[in-house]
Structure formats: C-alpha cells, structure tokens
What we know:
Strand order of the largest sheet: 1-2-3-4-5-6-7-8-9-10-11-14-15-16-17-18
Distance between the termini: 26 Å
Helix content: under 10%
Mean pLDDT: 89
Number of helices: 2
Order of helices and strands: EEEEEEEEEEEEEEEEEHEH
Amino acid sequence: MKRWKAPAFEPFLGLEHDDRSSIYYAPAIAWNGHDGFQAGLLLHNTTFPSQRTEWVVAPLYAFGSERFVGAARIEHHFDRIRSKVFQNIHLGLSGRSASTLHDHYANSWFTKLQPSVTFDLKRDPLTRPWAHSITLRGVFLRNESIQDPPDGPYVSSSTDDTFVDLSYSARNSSALMPTTITPVVTYHADFLRASVEISQGFTYNARKDQFRIRAFAGTFLSKNADGLSNGLQAWGLTWGPEDMLFDQAYFERGATDGFTGRQFVKQQGAFRTPFQQGGSDTWVASINTEIDIPIGIPLSVFASAGFVPITSVTQEGTSVSTASYYEAGIGLQVVRDVFEIWFPLAVSSRIADEEEFLDRQVTDRVRFVFALERMDPTKLLRHLKP
C-alpha cells in the first residue's frame, strides 16, 4: 500500500521533491498594455512524467488597471483507458480574466470560462502516422465595463456570450509530409457557422526546410435576422491582436497602432498585411504559401490570396460579386508558429488603394507573431516523451 503524503512546499522557484502529491509554486510576473505590470503566484501540480489530473492556478494583481486578473485550468486525462475506440479522453475546465481597456476614467475587462472534452481516437496500425481527435467545448464570455468621469455619472454595463465549438483534427506527423485537417462548427444564439483549415508541408532537405501550403474556407450556415452583434464574429482575411473566442494572448488586445498593434495570429484568411477590407458575414476563402530559403537562417518567402463576397449598389440595383486580394513578401520564422516577423512587399490594388487613402507606408505592413499561449511550460510537459 502506498502511503499518502501531504503536499510539500519548498520556496525555490517552485522546485520540489519528485513526488506526485507535491504542489509546486513560483513567483509570476506579466504585462499587457491594458493591465500594465502584473505580479502574483503560480501554483501547479504538473510534473514529468505527466499526471492524470493536472491543475494550474495563476492569480495576479495588475498595478495598471488595479484589478485582480490571471488564469487557471484543471484537466483530467484518462491515460490508462481501455477502449476499442478511444486512445485517451481529456476533460478540462479553464478560466481567464484580463482587461481590454484602461484609462483615467474608464475600464473594460473580460472573463472567460471554458469547459471541454477531447476524445483521442484509437490509431489504425495501417495508418499509424495519423492521429485523430474530436473536441467539444463551451466558451462563456462576459465583457464588463465601467465609466466614472469626474464631471459625469457613473455607468457600468456587461454583456454575456455563449459559444459551442465542435472540432475534428486529423494530423499526420510525418517528418517529410506533415498534414493537418481541422473542420470546426461553431454555434451561437445568433448564428451557426462552419470552417475547414488544411495545412500541408513538404520537407525538401536534411535541415527540415519546407514548402508549406494552407487553405481555409468558412461560411455561415444560418444567422439571426438582426445580423452579427460585433465585428469579431465575422470572417476576416486579416486580423490584428483580437479573436472572437479570446483564445489567443496579446500584448494589447484590440490595439490598432504602435508596436502592440503589429501583433497578429495566422487565423482564418491569415494575411500578414493589415487592411480594413476583407471582412465578410457570409463566406471567406484563402490560400497561403510559405517556402523556407535554404541558406542556414530561418528566412521564408510567402504569398497569400483571399476571396470574399462584395455587394455593389448601382442604379440598376444590387449585385454580389467576388473581391480578390493578394500579398507576397519575406518573413523571419525564429520559432515557427511561435515567434515570426513578416515583411509584406507586394499587395493587390485594393489593398494598395486603401493604404494610399489612409497615408500608410510599406513599413506599416510589418507585423509579427508572438504566440504566448503556445509557450505554457505546464502544457508542454505532457508532450515530452520519457
């Protein structure tokens, strides 16, 4: 019989005795453009090898917004499951809160709660490189704001949104031809939409340089007669530091200029160039290509093409046609999909005309990917192999 051992604490950057009942802890600091500098504590029980039940809590105090913020999650993994259908099942619940606006007299913030379950399907011995999983998750978002001007009334407001996501992932981890196929269906009280993303890589040398191609298509299956409640729910060829489900972490969510406004995530249309067009409340389609230059540094050439419907109103009436956009340039992929810098050099006439109207320069196109959510060490531990 194994004796239960009470959790032990050892105050050195969270380092602990190698014991599965231990609680690890460490100081935690963070920063974003709305909350400012944040300090707090990171508590977790994650170890290597991984445990079946893992939890992480990171409460922080934000000195800029003067609020308590942070994140937490708990997951249970059925690592010893015996099933003819499932390789594993993962049950999870996570939460997060951060500010979306802060100035002298106004504050806005969001709170997100996300329950989820992922089913890893049993691998077919004949197609072993392929891994298949199905994920069902709910996303509950509350956006709150207060205004307290010295010469006006105190005003507070809040809105709630609930989303349900059903996604399927088929992934081939082959070193020569990695492939990922991800269809997603998202339900909201005001709409039902579906999308599919397909990524294919072709490795062509021993340094693992690749040619990569990505295709995305999304459409609304139904919509409320009143339309979408905000622009984040529409499709987009290009995105700044924002996303509908608040899945990504940004230096300054919603920023439109300055250094923080140049951060983006390759989602939906995945255009590197920022522009105001390319949104759609019906459908969108895009194709993105990247090829690594075999010169010993992580330099890549890229090109993107995207298509959205556009409505024209003339004396003869209303007509719908398809607007096309393209871009091309170079990029520095320091860590692929985690830290990248992109330099769009050529764009289509629609984008160029918008840039001329807004007096934007070629240097205003430069943007970067810094995927903070991909660098969580407590999640990376589970993917390490003993």
